[in-house]
Amino acid sequence: MSPVLDVIIASTRPGRVGEPVGRWFAQAARDHAGFDVRLVDLAEVGLPIYDEPNHPRLKQYVHEHTKRWSAIVEAADAFVFVTPEYNFGPTPALVNALNYVYQEWAYKPAAFVSYGGISGGLRGVQMAKQIITTLRIAPIGEAVTIPMVAKQVENGVFTPNDMQKTSATAVLDELLRWAEAMRPLRG
Fold first, then answer.
1. What is the DSSP-derived secondary structure letter of residue 86?
2. What average pLDDT score do residues 11-37 get?
3. Please, which residues bridge with residue 4 across strands?
4. Predicted TM-score of the model (pTM)
5. Domain tally, the chain
6. Degrees (nearest 5) of the Cα angle 186, 180, 100?
7. Model confidence at 132, in pLDDT bands (50, 70, 90)?
8. pLDDT over 90 (residue 152)
């Protein structure tokens, strides 16, 4: 059975380019054929600002939106966060989604597909890595970085360049190695 990869679109704002970038990467992952790929859009997940009365490590969720999110994260073996940066940090939606559950993230690898202006979202990725390691998610070194992303999106479609295609393959190859190696840790 192939490991489950969640490609998570981390921007929820209207007019975002994360959706076409996420669709491209999810298709690249399907073409790679190493994973069972699910595209998860935080805009569709629709988590409110954290509203559970109990600490997430207890897994005593009272809200249906949390139970649904817990099931999504629990079922995944690896993650790719498709994300811009907001004020040199991760998107508020991503931080909120990460904070909603705890045990469900543990001992799974993650990679980033980041986009934006000249920095390509890298500063936000660096800040996000501090959060995900606290959740025992293992960030891999390989990444896809897309500077000046608006130049590559036309009519709602992202067109990658050769370097981004090569980077996507490297991300998926390495993520697959880590997902398989970390499976025993999840028992």
1. B
2. 97
3. 36
4. 0.97
5. 1
6. 45
7. very high
8. yes
